[in-house]
C-alpha cells in the first residue's frame, strides 16, 4: 500500500495505491495524520489506484470524515472502481461520503 499526500488548489489530497487491508491499516492511519489539521481545507481521497479496501480501511475513511466534519470541512472520494464502489454500497458508506 502506498499513500501520497499533496495540497492541491487549497484541498488536501491523499492518493491511495494498492490494497488497504487490516495488515497495513496501522501504517496508513499514521500516514493520514496530515488530514487531521484540515480546518479551512476540503479533503479528497483519491482512490483510482486503490485495488481493495477492508473494513479496517473503511474505518480509517470514516475517521477522516468525522474529523473533517468537526471543523466544517468536506471529504470527497474520487476514482472508485466498480468493485470498491460495491463495497461502499453494501456497507452503507455510499450514503456517508460525497463523490467526485
Write a short abstract of this structure.
It is built from 3 helices and 5 strands, in the order E-E-H-E-H-E-H-E. It is an alpha/beta fold and 100 residues long.
Q: How would you sum up the global shape? A: globular
Low-confidence stretches: none
User: Which range does the strand content fall in?
Assistant: 25-35%
Q: Mean pLDDT, rounded to whole units?
A: 96
Please characterize this protein's 3D structure.
The protein is of the alpha/beta class and 100 residues long. It contains three helices and five strands; from the N terminus they run ββαβαβαβ. It has helices at residues 25-31, 55-70, 82-91; strands at 2-8, 11-20, 43-53, 75-78, 98-99. It has a five-stranded mixed sheet with strand order 1-2-3-4-5. The chain is globular, with a radius of gyration of 12 Å. It starts with a strand and ends with a strand.
Topology diagram in text:
Blueprint: E1 2-8, E2 11-20, H1 25-31, E3 43-53, H2 55-70, E4 75-78, H3 82-91, E5 98-99
Parallel strand pairs: 2-3, 3-4, 4-5
Antiparallel strand pairs: 1-2
Looking at this protein, list some descriptive labels:
100 residues; alpha/beta; five-stranded mixed sheet
